[in-house]
């Protein structure tokens, strides 16, 4: 806990009060020793650790990127979605915080129990609707007067978005999200008890000319079976995946038949243009390569092995002596 720093004038006043008897130093010590009590609200029970909150934030950062790509392709306009905050609050508090009339998508997440809620602000929802109907993506608010066609268009858009939720959650659980209900009034929606702890992920959203928030509400009952998978240990460990024998064999065969260029550099030197112009038959050019030193075998112009020259079956060949290590002076 951070300590309070006193100014010089405050220090002088404190010393003056002690010296004059207005304040007792022993009483100050006693107050410091007394245990401080923090009020705990049982209605706001914290059921998720900071570690688990960070894991949920990472999952939905990925979800935000997937949604950005999905909505960009569907609406053919600029889309920017990012995680603004991840909080745990009572369900009743979340319901009170959203508009009285808004867009509510309720998803089941089999095999997990319970349902999760995606609340989309009217500005964003109608910006999407305007784009789907050929507009510029301007926002409006006519949530109370949705036609059947508008309801169907929005439902289909958010129903297809469930694929992105499945992919984002694949790191902690294999789920099959399905859009079960589409509502506009949160008062008619009672997913869990009012005091139940829920995770609320708020996404800053800009679509075309419209901007607003998308809130994802996940009850504790949904996350309870996968809470162990939200730990740092789960994220850091590398899970061994079974190798596909058919794919492995195909990849091996393709690599084995790949062509590479192998060549050996016998040596090199440098001459000037005048010497080059006066070269004649039987002239000898001295190279900087000693016959006692090994040569370099290059694979696709990359030095790989030290070799020595020789003959094999009446052909000039080289014998590999050792593999070239990184950091060798000759590399």
From TrEMBL:
The lineage of its organism: Bacteria, Bacillati, Bacillota, Bacilli, Bacillales. Keywords: Bacterial flagellum, Cell membrane, Cell projection, Chemotaxis, Cilium, Flagellar rotation, Flagellum, Membrane. The keyword Nucleotidyltransferase does not apply. GO terms for molecular function: cytoskeletal motor activity. Coiled coil: none annotated. It comes from the Bacteria. Belongs to the FliM family. GO terms for biological process: bacterial-type flagellum-dependent swarming motility; positive chemotaxis. This is Flagellar motor switch protein FliM. InterPro entries: CheC-like_sf, Flag_FliM, FliN-like_C, SpoA-like_sf. Residues 254-323 form the Flagellar motor switch protein FliN-like C-terminal domain. It is found in: Bacterial flagellum basal body; Cell membrane. GO terms for cellular component: bacterial-type flagellum basal body; plasma membrane. It is a peripheral membrane protein.
């Amino acid at each position: 806990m951070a300590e309070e720093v006193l100014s010089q004038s405050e220090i002088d006043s404190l010393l003056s009060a002690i010296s004059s008897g207005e304040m007792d130093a022993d009483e100050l010590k006693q107050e410091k020793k007394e245990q401080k009590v923090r009020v705990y609200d049982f209605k706001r029970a914290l059921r998720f650790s900071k570690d688990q909150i960070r894991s949920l934030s990472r999952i939905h950062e990925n979800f935000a990127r997937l949604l950005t790509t999905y909505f960009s392709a569907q609406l053919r306009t600029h889309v920017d979605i990012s995680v603004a905050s991840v909080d745990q609050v009572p369900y009743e508090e979340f319901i009170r915080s959203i508009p009285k009339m808004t867009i509510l998508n309720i998803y089941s997440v089999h095999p997990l129990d319970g349902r999760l809620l995606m609340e989309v602000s009217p500005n964003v929802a109608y910006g999407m609707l305007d784009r789907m109907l050929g507009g510029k993506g301007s926002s409006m608010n006519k949530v109370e007067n949705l036609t059947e066609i508008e309801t169907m268009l929005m439902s289909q858009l958010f129903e297809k978005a469930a694929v992105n939720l499945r992919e984002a959650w694949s790191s902690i659980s294999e789920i099959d999200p399905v859009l079960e209900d589409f509502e506009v009034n949160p008062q008619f929606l009672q997913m869990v008890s009012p005091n139940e702890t829920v995770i609320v992920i708020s996404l800053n959203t800009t679509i075309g000319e419209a901007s607003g928030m998308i809130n994802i509400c996940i009850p504790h009952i949904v996350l309870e079976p996968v809470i162990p998978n939200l730990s740092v240990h789960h994220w850091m460990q590398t899970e061994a995946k079974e190798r596909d024998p058919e794919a492995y064999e195909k990849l091996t065969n393709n690599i084995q038949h790949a062509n590479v260029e192998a060549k050996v550099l016998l040596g090199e030197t440098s001459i000037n243009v005048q010497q080059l112009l006066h070269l004649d038959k039987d002239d000898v050019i001295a190279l900087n390569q000693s016959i006692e030193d090994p040569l370099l075998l290059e694979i696709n112009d990359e030095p790989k092995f030290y070799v020595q020259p020789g003959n094999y079956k009446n052909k000039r060949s080289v014998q590999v002596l050792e593999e070239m290590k990184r950091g060798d002076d000759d590399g």
